[in-house]
Amino acid sequence: MQTSNIFETLCANYSHHPNYTMSKITKPKSALKGSKSDKKQVKMAAEAAEKIVAEKPVEETPADLSKTIVSTSSSTSSVDPAFRIVTGSYEHNLFCVSLLLGTSPVFSPIFHFTPHIQSIKCLATSGRYLVSGSADENIRIYDLQKRKELGTLTHHSGTITALEFYKRKWLLTAGEDGKIFVLRTKDWEVLAELKGHARAAVGKAKVGVVDISVHPTGRLALSVGQDRKLILWNLMTAKKASVMACYPDVLKVAWNLAGDRYAVTYTTSISFFSPETGKLIGAIRSPKDGLYHSEYVSIDGKEYFAFSNSRGVIRFVDTNEFEGKTNDTKNEFKTEDEDIDTISFKVQPHATRVKDFSFLIPDNVPEADRHVYMTSVSTDSKLVITDMNTRETVGAYNTGDRLNCCVMVQEDVEMEIKKALPIPESDHDMSASESEVEMPQPSKKQQKKAAKAARKNKKVKVTIEKDN
């Protein structure tokens, strides 16, 4: 199968044009009837009343006052940020909660169920779709707009270790079977299989793929495995572009937001590389604290590399400080030294190891008031929300499960489907190839089906003639 068109440049402009309707003000018809002289007297009385109104302002009626209050509040009041958080746990549970940030955080559980028979290892979301990977070798697909499961992917024969979407149209999956698959989200068909990592033999230590990261252009991808390989993939040809060596305790790999450098995270260290030269441009050592999750994020227009450790600390490093250094300079920092504080800051949302964290900018608030929010999860059963612009904790929720992974989605993920389909569809609809924006008009097939059912249920009128 040709894969030259696997990752095309997708440029879609979404514009929402709200419709405003104005009710017409009509004058009530006069109920006065009589002679011309009566009408003349009524006209003179009306003119006298208008003069009085012109001299003295008319006080607003309660109805008019209510209209004024509504129009003022809609134009000047601020909107509280709102978003949703989905977590996966060691107890096989998938949990979603909605958070409204006002004077005090308000958590509203959305769903909580057990889709897997073993612990959930990873989550990924893009638009309306949510996928979960587990140690039971299955990947579950969910439609967040309809709150229903679309199906299960069973193409892996090992624990699912990494899931990553690209541009809402493609999904990359990796597992301990040493395989990486590229799927199309329209019909969830496997378009390519990337082979390059080793699979664990029976009775030996686990290997396989540990993590994957897609380049911002969608043409390249990085993968790391416990087989001591770091592979650069050409996704246009589905073949290896280069292979580098890495340590077996590798945990994460990530491209930065511009795609001009990448980071490899190990259990006690992080290495930063330039893809153009392949040389090491910086390193961070953490000999006393084990590392867990790491990724790049932009805060206030500045790029940081965030990583968590076993003490519940999440540190944000400005990787631009690594640039411009000569090869003679030892560009290495330790988390225990004070030197790293000159290029980073940290927050501590938990007291124990932070297994995962995710970032989101809520789009339900004006652009000038938007902040970056971070959700972090730990095995202490708590998910903690931090405002990264103020670096303060704004909310915490105890799920009762040992959390392993998390993702964040916009609060209005269900709003489009609710507006388009006021009448819910059948729960047995498992279609996975629906468009991103649902149309309110029924299809021709549905119209024919409804007409057929109407004809079938139509009652036949029977008349009985009486004998004279």
Describe the structure.
Pfam families: WD40. Keywords: WD repeat. InterPro entries: PAK1-Kinase_Regulator, WD40/YVTN_repeat-like_dom_sf, WD40_repeat_dom_sf, WD40_rpt. There is one protein chain. It contains four helices and 29 strands. With 468 residues, the protein is mostly beta strands. It has a single domain, classed as YVTN repeat-like/Quinoprotein amine dehydrogenase (Methylamine Dehydrogenase, Chain H), CATH 2.130.10.10. The strands form seven sheets. Strands 16-17-18-19-23 form a five-stranded mixed β-sheet, with no helix packed on it. Strand 4 and strand 5 form a beta hairpin. The N and C termini lie far apart (82 Å). The relative contact order is 0.11. The N terminus is likely disordered.
Write the layout of secondary structure elements.
Layout lengths: L35 H20 L6 H15 L5 E8 L4 E8 L3 E9 L6 E7 L2 E6 L4 E5 L4 E6 L6 E7 L3 E6 L3 E6 L4 E7 L13 E6 L5 E6 L3 E6 L4 E7 L4 E6 L6 E5 L2 E5 L6 E6 L5 E9 L2 E8 L4 E4 L14 E3 L9 E4 L6 E7 L12 E6 L3 E6 L4 E7 L4 E8 L4 H6 L23 H14 L11
Parallel strand pairs: 19-23
Antiparallel strand pairs: 1-2, 1-29, 2-3, 4-5, 5-6, 6-7, 8-9, 9-10, 10-11, 12-13, 13-14, 14-15, 16-17, 17-18, 18-19, 20-21, 21-22, 22-24, 25-26, 26-27, 27-28
Pfam families: WD40
Keywords: WD repeat
